[in-house]
Design goal:
The chain is an all-alpha fold. It has 19 helices and no strands.
Length: 372
């Protein structure tokens, strides 16, 4: 196609994108009226643009590094790919559009291709594609299909692991976390070492939203059969355990702390109890979290993790005494609070937390007679 025609196409796409900055009900109405006809046209535009950029990239490689392409700001192919990816992103905000969009032939493959790192494609087009994939993965009916789509999870993992853009990594982490919610996806996703390493890296991000998505991914993956829990605990010399424990105790964001504490509680089972009980600082850290006076759920979840561990750690295990001391510190703190010796009372919180404290008190009494 000639340059003049692509100028008209880019102007048309940009105009449609601006129209779709409307209110959500109007956007949804428009999708259900014209979406089935418009999506194939948008995919055709994407395909032509991808081919154009691939040709330019090959030309740069064959020629010198001084190859002078067209001005990016006026390049109609650049304008077109930015507009069409944003149109698709607008559609992905419509809840009832998520399933028909994911089922549109060629859409997932094209978005995957655009989302992958490229020296020629505009970054904002990549971000729109990743954002759309993350939103499509919010729908339970899409999760299994997307996780089985050839190369899609691999592409998301590569972006999450080492993409130079924090925005791209954040969108990829959100997509992975959403996919991990589906029970059928938990085992296959947890069997990907690079995915687990990527989430560990992102748990240490300075971007709160990124840490939230990574923490949510571990929260969902840990709610799985015992074999998966064991795999997560053992991964990379207990790196997940160490990272989640650190975030549960001192992350600046309450949502991250709660997801991390939930993950620790989820990981407890007969197969992992010995490993967790002997993990350096885990029992003491759970006890410290359990006596925090914040209003969130992290303290309650940490206490419940101690309760769960107490079901599987027996007096014959070398970590039994350490567990009992950790429980004792929580029970003693609660007792001191009730006697007015602490700055605040733990029992002024939720019923769930009070029930957790009552369970720990009962466990401590039973353990005292068995302690070795």
């Amino acid at each position: 196609m000639n340059y003049k025609l692509w100028n008209e196409i880019s102007l048309t796409c940009a105009t449609i994108e601006m129209i779709y900055r409307c209110e959500l009900p109007k956007l949804g109405e428009s999708f259900h009226r014209v979406g089935n006809e418009l999506l194939p046209l948008l995919l055709t535009v994407m395909a032509h643009v991808l081919q154009k950029f691939q040709e330019e990239e090959n030309q740069r490689k064959e020629c010198s590094s001084d190859f002078d392409g067209e001005d990016d700001l006026e390049n109609p192919w650049r304008i077109s790919i930015l507009a069409v990816t944003k149109i698709v992103a607008h559609y992905a905000t419509v809840t009832t559009a998520l399933v028909p969009m994911a089922q549109q032939i060629g859409l997932l493959s094209t978005l995957k291709r655009i989302a992958s790192p490229s020296a020629s494609l505009p970054e904002n087009a990549r971000f729109s594609s990743l954002w759309t994939l993350a939103n499509l993965a919010c729908d339970a009916d899409n999760m299994l299909m997307m996780s089985c789509h050839q190369g899609l999870v691999d592409a998301l993992v590569r972006v999450a692991y080492d993409d130079p853009s924090y925005e791209a990594r954040t969108h990829a982490a959100k997509a992975i976390a959403n996919l991990a919610w589906r029970p059928e996806n938990k085992i296959p996703l947890s069997e990907r070492p690079m995915l687990l390493d990527a989430m560990v890296k992102l748990m240490g991000s300075s971007i709160t939203k990124t840490r939230r998505h990574a923490a949510k991914a571990f929260r969902f993956l840990s709610d799985a059969p015992s074999s998966t829990k064991l795999r997560l605990c053992k991964h990379n010399n207990h790196k997940i355990l160490a990272t989640v424990l650190k975030r549960a105790s001192n992350d600046a964001d309450r949502a991250v702390r709660e997801c991390a504490a939930t993950t620790l509680c989820n990981l407890v089972c007969n197969e992992t109890a010995f490993m967790m009980g002997n993990h350096s600082g885990l029992l003491d850290t759970l006890a410290n979290i359990a006596v925090m006076t914040e209003r969130g759920n992290a303290p309650t979840l940490a206490g419940e993790a101690l309760c769960e561990l107490a079901q599987f750690i027996t007096p014959e295990m070398k970590c039994f005494n350490a567990l009992n001391r950790a429980i004792e510190s929580v029970v003693s703190f609660e007792s001191d609070s009730n006697n007015g010796n602490a700055h605040s009372s733990l029992t002024n919180f939720s019923v769930r937390r009070e029930n957790m404290l009552a369970r720990l008190s009962e466990i401590y009494k039973n353990n005292c007679s068995q302690e070795v």
